[in-house]
Every structure is written in C-alpha cells, then in structure tokens.
Design goal:
145 residues, mainly alpha
C-alpha cells in the first residue's frame, strides 16, 4: 500500500505528510510570537512531535541503512542523507532546548524569554533547511528517475 504512488513504504509517505503538517504548525506558532505562552506551547508541541517521528521513523531507517552511508561510493543520495541527519540533529536539539527552557520558565512562573530573536530565526532556518533536505531525500530515493 502506498499513499503517493511512489516507491516509498506507506510509513515514509505518512512521515512526509506529518513533516508538512509540522511545517504549517510551526508557521502558525511563529505567527503567534507576540503571545509568548501560546507561541512557546505551539513550538514545544511541534518539537516533541518531531522528536517522536525521529525516534520511531527516521532514526530506525537511518540505523538500518547506515552501512550504505559509510561504504563507497559517495553518491548524491548519501550527501543528502548525511546533511539531513546532521542538520536535523542540530535543529531538533535546539528546538528541544528552547522547549525545555520554556517549560521550566513556565513552571517556575518566570518571564517567558527562551532565546534571542536571532537564535529563533537560526533555529527555524535550520529546521526549514533540514525539511528541504528531507524532501530532497524522499524525492531522490522514492520518486522514479
């Protein structure tokens, strides 16, 4: 069974849909930046949801295919995969750290200031580049050439 009629398993089609939904979710969160409690809650839910997809879909796939990534030749697919994994790790780490700081400040009833504007912009840029690389990964491996 497939969703998009590609060479992909349905789990990876579903993950692509989830990632697009998360993009819309995070854009919604970014648009609520003036209301810090709502913004932080939306972004934390997005980061945690993304972590779940990493732990249960992308991570196991990466581990299963690791021998292909470390064995020559280095192909465009390998470059896309490694860049996606490295930038994704940095992006999810940043998102989770911002989320943790938000939750701790919320629980301690402290002012909600989880990061500077440039940090947030860097984080969303990293997430977007990682998403684009993930879409590139999907296209490279699952769309017929």
């Amino acid at each position: 069974m497939v969703i998009f009629g590609t060479l992909s398993a349905v789990l990876f089609d579903a993950n692509l849909i989830i990632q697009i939904v998360l993009l819309v979710w995070l854009i919604f969160g970014a648009l609520n930046k003036r209301e810090l409690k709502r913004h932080g809650t939306i972004m934390a839910i997005g980061a945690i949801s993304n972590l779940v997809t990493i732990l249960f879909i992308m991570g196991p796939s990466l581990i299963r295919n690791l021998p292909t990534l470390v064995t020559p030749p280095v192909t465009l697919g390998v470059v896309i995969t490694v860049a996606h994994a490295i930038l994704g790790l940095v992006a999810i780490t940043g998102g989770l750290l911002f989320s943790l700081r938000f939750v701790l400040q919320l629980r301690a009833k402290q002012p909600l200031a989880c990061g500077k504007r440039w940090m947030m912009r860097t984080e969303i840029t990293l997430w977007l580049v990682t998403l684009l690389l993930g879409i590139g990964f999907y296209a490279f491996y699952y769309l017929p050439h």
